[in-house]
Write a structure and sequence with these properties.
single chain; 145 residues; alpha+beta; Nucleotidyltransferase, domain 5; two-stranded antiparallel sheet; two-stranded parallel sheet; 6 helices; 4 strands; globular
Length: 145
């Protein structure tokens, strides 16, 4: 995957996962890119769902465009509105608490210093080590007694 930019210290990882052990899809973006457009690209890659599914998201993805895309693809967005939103919506706070599973997955891959510190200058090398971290973590889970 060549995104046309160099990696480095400000590279962002955007991810969709089912729980703290299973990444579904992820991508990289430069640090100066907005979160919401990158998140919408990942959601589009998932495609339209047969039955409605919940999609728990960070506040960075709470924009109207992202919410409408989710609804058009049969996802129910679970995201709190920003505090300065003029017309906030009601969201399931209990369900939103399980969003920490995504953060747990990020914490697992950031155990690897190379990912945590983002030493790699090329996005392809950085991406390789993210895949390596996922593979290593899954092997550890398989071999646990």
């Amino acid at each position: 995957m060549n995104t046309g930019y160099k990696g480095g210290f400000n590279t962002k990882i955007h991810m969709i996962c089912t729980n703290e052990n299973n990444p579904v899809i992820f991508s990289l973006s430069p640090g100066n890119a907005g979160d919401a457009p990158c998140g919408r690209e990942l959601i589009k890659k998932l495609g339209k769902q047969k039955k409605q599914r919940y999609l728990l998201m960070d506040k960075a993805y709470e924009g109207d465009d992202t919410r409408f895309l989710n609804q058009s693809l049969n996802f129910k967005p679970i995201v709190p509105p920003k505090s300065n939103r003029k017309s906030p919506w009601i969201f399931d706070k209990v369900l939103y608490k399980s969003r920490n599973k995504v953060e747990r997955l990020f914490r697992k891959i950031k155990r690897f210093r190379r990912i945590f510190t983002r030493y790699d200058k090329l996005d392809s090398i950085f991406l390789f080590f993210i895949y390596f971290a996922f593979i290593f973590d899954s092997l550890l889970r398989v071999n646990r007694p």
